[in-house]
Amino acid sequence: MTGNVFLAVDLSDEERHGLAAVLADADLSRIVPGKRTRPKNWHITVCFIGEAEEHQIDRLAERTEALLDAEPGVIHLTAVGGFPKLSKASVLFLAVEDESHTLNVIAADCEEAATEAGFEPDGRPFRPHLTLSRIRPPRDIQALESSFDEIRFPVKVSAVTMFRSESGKDGMRYRPLHRFEL
User: Which phi and psi (to 5°) does residue 37 adopt?
Assistant: First the structure.
């Protein structure tokens, strides 16, 4: 089976509905450019793996289970951001505020598990975020910053889920492979 594998903090159904309501109140459909990420696909990636064979996935699951040593916590989705930068964004996202550094601990543990399972480190600095849309071609989204000033949406972090992305006729789907409770 093909598709990229990644480890992420998944939102609960209640959190997805709550965040969707907050974004609807901010008139998301009117102001967000690009192809929007469907709420059922919302997550916060903590470690991107890429293509992986089943035996590699099993080894990664084993190492993640052994090494994941973070305490549950709460993070907040806050300001709008863009990759690579707001003035030429190809990705629109909500930034994460993580006062307890829970996600940094999780990301480090997952990166170590991936390395021990034989995967190359990603090499990019960890920047937790929730993708709202992908913008092709990239464009200036600096004006959107003020539209999201008041967002501070809580998300409980109590598990990490290993997903495989699968492309289908109705768009991208993320299939959970393993769940690791904190």
Answer: -80, 130
- Quote the DSSP letter at residue 87: G
Q: In what side-by-side order are the strands of the sheet with 159-168?
A: 43-50, 5-10, 159-168, 171-181
| Helix, strand or coil, per DSSP, at residue 118 | coil
Residue with tokens 């089976």: 1
Residue 32: beta bridge partners? Answer: none
Name the pTM for this structure.
0.93
What the chain holds in terms of domains, given with CATH numbers, is: 5-181 (3.90.1140.10)
pLDDT in tens, 159-168: 999 999 998 8
The helix (H) or strand (E) run that includes residue 90 is strand 89-97
Q: Is the peptide bond before 84 cis (omega within 30 degrees of 0)?
A: yes
pLDDT 10s digits, 116-162: 999 998 888 999 999 999 999 999 998 887 766 678 999 999 999 99
Check: CB of residue 5 under 8 Å from CB of residue 125.
no
What pLDDT, in 10s, does the model give residues 128-137? 999 999 999 9
CA 60 – CA 53 distance, rounded (Å): 10
Say how far apart CA 45 and CA 163 lie, in whole Å.
10
